[in-house]
Amino acid sequence: xxxxxxxxxxxxxxxxxxxxxxxxxxxxxxxxxxxxxxxxxxxxxxxxxxxxxxxxxxxxxxxxxxxxxxxxxxxxxxxxxxxxx
Length: 85
Description:
With about 80 residues, this protein is mainly alpha-helical. The protein has helices at about 5-10, 25-30, 35-40, 45-55, 60-70, 75-80, and strands spanning about 20, 80-85. The chain has a single domain, classed as Orthogonal Bundle (434 Repressor (Amino-terminal Domain)), CATH 1.10.260.
């Protein structure tokens, strides 16, 4: 979707920051995977997976995100939830 500048400005809450929360733990549970197993299968470092599971993120690593989305055969909006806080 391409927005006009004014539309994008209305959507952005300038008093809050955008954070990304991972649905990774739920996706892993559905497949019965541990952090180590997911790391082995995707090539994403265990420390990165732990960080994604633990907390809110201000930015996403596109390579890790791409590998995880491909592995789980999901779209980015299924892998992450965006919230203004």
